[in-house]
Amino acid sequence: FPEHMSKDYYDFYVDYFFKVDPSIGYFPGAQEMLDELKRRGYKLAIATGKARRGLARFNDRLGLDKTFDDTICVDESASKPDPLMIDILLERQGATKEEAILIGDSAHDGQTAINACVDFMAVTFGARSEEEMKAFNPAFIAHSFDEILNYLSVSAQEEERSQATSEG
Fold first, then answer.
1. Taking the CB of residue 106, how many other CB atoms lie within 10 A of it?
2. Can you count the helices (H) and strands (E) in the chain?
């Protein structure tokens, strides 16, 4: 694009995408799942390829700061699949790699999890198919928000049993 055209296009995109498009929001069921995870004591974070300015617009529309404990954007860190975003979030939240799981729908998410040495849960209701996500050796592939909750419940129960066995 010529320089003046790209600015016009960008301005149109921002006006439409963030101010006009009523479809911007969570997938149906996502907010309820996030609320349940918060109720269970999970720390939730966003590691995004969006700039802080873009995420701030989503926050204004969706109130992300009421749901998520932390966020990091591409203009504050190296971009995915570099593990730096995950490392920064873990450090800021006082969490270990063993406690973390990256939930994502893209090849960049899968490779980021591998590079950061954290578990990966692939979701099939986003950018990529189940077959494509299998390449990143996910700990689990979720087809719905209920499956995410169920997997995390089972994992938490297994962790509790493991700790009880090692202490007993």
1. 19
2. 8, 5
